[in-house]
Amino acid sequence: MSLMSKLAPIKARHEELAALMSGGDVQGEEFVNLSKEYAELEPVVTTIKAYEQALQEQEDLQDMLADPEMKAMAEDDLQRIKEELPELERQIQLALIPKDEADDKSAILEIRAGTGGDEAALFAADLFTMYRNYASKHGWQFEVMEAAENDIGGYKEIIAAINGRGVYARLKFESGVHRVQRVPETESGGRIHTSAATVAIMPEAEEVDVDIRDEDLRIDVYRASGAGGQHVNKTESAVRITHLPTGTVVAIQDHSSQHKNKAQAMKVLQSRIYDAQRQALADERSADRKAQVGSGDRSERIRTYNFPQGRVSDHRINLTLQKLDKVLSGEALDEIVDALIAEDQALKLTELNAA
Questions:
Q1: Distance, CA of 134 to CA of 129 (rounded, Å)
Q2: Model's pTM, two decimal places?
């Protein structure tokens, strides 16, 4: 199918939406939904019109080449148009890529220490700091929901909510196993150890995204234990919610309020179930998810942080940056994120053009 034939339905839908909204017959939630769809199509249609105008201008300029007096000027303008058209075409093709409905959402971040004992927990803390700083850089809100620390300042597990528009779109390719190679502070012999931590990025689910019935939940309250403030072992503020159909369990005890712990646990539970449903759907749609950048496979080793050589390598796109400190500070993480998004777009464009 040619590009132009793909554009006609988009323009027609844009005009249809404009007519529906101006007719006065659509109100309430339906009007809100139509307005949202119209707003999403507006920049696409603007680019389409610019593309069509450039094509027409190119055709007019080619006709002018036959006129000796206009030829020189026409050649200059024609060169400009030929340089503009590929970028306009690329912008349109990117807009034609099916949109991930979760891209605009906030996200739940989960980091768990893997192989490596205390060193893995310290690395999990390093990753947590990286994402917290990255969130601050982008103006996102960052809230710790649950944290299980070890005795030396590391995290066995930590869960945080990152709130902002488009958080999931920027962070979704961070899911997977992150590996670190360095000499641990506890290592007296100076030997390099390899440890790992698992990162999971899930779109924050809303009630409309996933149907969870009250009768499918078992909610237990108990006294918090370990680090957690003055409420520890005094009140039954900790909450554990089990989703019986899937066996998904979320326990939150980080706050002194049982009500807040329950609300946080429900938020994480909804997001885990929503994420699992999305992954199952992705499995069905793709025969070979390993070929995709964002396979979401939590067991896949995606990145190595090598301290002796000061480098970070993302194994999915063969990208290596000699900026270990800047990546872990969150300052240079965008260079990796942008490269992953570009690779994902390239793969989807290839698939789109082959259709």
A1: 8
A2: 0.79
